[in-house]
Structures are given as C-alpha cells and as structure tokens.
Amino acid sequence: MRNFAVTMAYNGTAYHGFQRQDNGATVQQTVETAIKKLTGCEANIIGCSRTDAGVHANGFVFNLPLESGIPCDGFVKGMNALLPPDMAILDCREESLDFHARYSCKGKQYLYRIYTSPVRDVFLRDTALHYPYPLNTELMDRAAGLFIGTHDFAAFCKAESLHLVKTTVRTVTEARVVTEGKFTDIYVSGNGFLHNMVRIIVGTLMYISEGKRTEEDIAAALDTGDRERAGKTAPACGLYLNRVYY
Predict the structure, then answer these.
(1) Domain extents for the chain?
(2) Which of 202, 198, 207, 215 is nearest to 153 (CA)?
(3) Active-site residue 91, yes or no?
(4) Phi and psi, residue 127, nearest 5°
(5) DSSP assignment of 149-200, as one string?
(6) Which contiguous run of DSSP H or E holds residue 216?
(7) What's the N-to-C CA distance of the chain in angstroms?
(8) How far apart are CA 45 and CA 62, in angstroms?
(9) With contact defined as beta carbons under 8 Å apart, do 166 and 95 qualify?
(10) pLDDT classification of 24: cutoffs 50, 70, 90
C-alpha cells in the first residue's frame, strides 16, 4: 500500500462542496471517479477540509491510500487528462502511511477576494464578491488584528453547527486586508476553523467599513459569543482555501 499526498486546485462553483454526498456533485466524487478510471482501483480520498458549496481552493490537499504502481508524475498527468476543466492536480508526492491530510495538518490559510468596482466584471462571476462601493481597508485591516490570537469564536460559527464541535476555541495567526487595484483580499490563517468562520469574519470586517459594527463589537463578540455583535456571513463565491501547512 502506498500513500499519496496530492495538492489540487478547483473552482467550486458547480459543486456541493468537497465531501461526498447524495444530493449533488462534489469534488470528492469527481476526483474518486477519475482515480478509478486512471488506476482501476477503488479510491477513498481523505481531504484536508470540508469546503462548502461554491467555495474554491488554490491549494487543497488530500491523501490517497492506493494499491498501484503508478508514479507520481504519471498520476498528475493522467488525472489532469480526466478531470473536468474546473479542477487541476498541482502536485503529488509519496508520504508515509501515517500521513493524514486532515489530522497531520498544522494550519490553513484562507483567502477572501472582493472586487470593488461600480460595475461588475462578468468574468469574475462566482470567483470574487462584487462590492460596488469603496471599502475602508485601513479600518478593516486594523480591526482584523483583533482576531489574531486564541479566542472563543462561537459568535463566528454557523449556529446550526455549534453542537457538532467539542470546542469553539481556535487560534488565528494571521488576519490582514490587502488592496491591489480594484481587489481587496482578506487573508486569515489559523490552526483550525469553525463552519462559516472565515465568511463571518469577512462579513464583520465589511460591516466595520460600512460603520455598522465597531472594534468594540468584535471584542464583545469574542468575549460573549453573541452572534448579533458580529457581522453577516459573506457569500461563498469569494472564499478560497489558499494553503495548507504540514
């Protein structure tokens, strides 16, 4: 038995998230179907994360226990010939059998991309949030620093998912806002993330720019877990799993 660690990118617009499910096409199902065609082996890939419907990835990692003699470069070429054009295998390496894409992970970096222009760019549809007004990115970046550190992020989790986790305490190591031209990119890194956590952080920072929330609201949300003190949940289209750290 061999254990491949595979890095891929995908546009999540057409998929109901990464994880296999019965009610629609997913990234996992699509990749596993291609693996079977390529190797003749039944595949059960193990993803580093469960991205939601419409969320994208620049560097998603999965591991693949496989009984096959295919070399890593052959796996990359063969998979890219079989996968749809909204997916690409970027890298493949052989790891020890105890490598686990999720449990061996030390941290992740997410990117949220906002396109700030009065007129939408039709070629960015579903890959960036169109926001037709200027953003106060200096204020947003300063507020983003409040998320850095170890906090209880209960106010920044989808309410229906709170009962699924043992703890809502997470450590954020990076939260910054970068502007280049008409794009505002928000980077958030940490040791783990709750359901919709990054999207709620982004929505809160947008409310900061709009004057609908203050830095005091962020501090109160982290202290009390009051979802009303945080902001809206930003749409999925602008979110990317950007990097995974091992």
Answers:
(1) 2-95, 107-245
(2) 198
(3) no
(4) -120, 0
(5) EEEE-GGGS-GGGGGG-S--EEEEEEEEEEEETTEEEEEEEES---TTHHHH
(6) helix 215-224
(7) 22
(8) 6
(9) no
(10) confident
Per-residue pLDDT of 132-161, as tens digits, reads 999 999 999 999 999 999 999 999 999 999
Catalytic residue among 52, 141, 185, 217: 52
CATH number for the region 107-245 comes to: 3.30.70.660
Residue 149 structure tokens: 């550190």
Compute the distance between CA of residue 17 and CA of residue 4 in angstroms, rounded to an integer.
Answer: 22
Residues 6+ apart with CB under 8 A from 158: 194, 195, 196, 200, 233
Class (C level, CATH) for 2-95: alpha beta
- Residue 81 tokens read as 């010939």
**CA dihedral angle for residue 7, residue 33, residue 50, residue 46, rounded to 10 degrees:** -60
pLDDT in tens, 48-106: 999 999 999 999 999 999 999 999 999 999 999 999 999 999 999 999 999 999 999 99
Q: Do domains 2-95 and 107-245 have the same CATH topology?
A: yes
pLDDT in tens, 188-203: 999 999 999 999 999 9
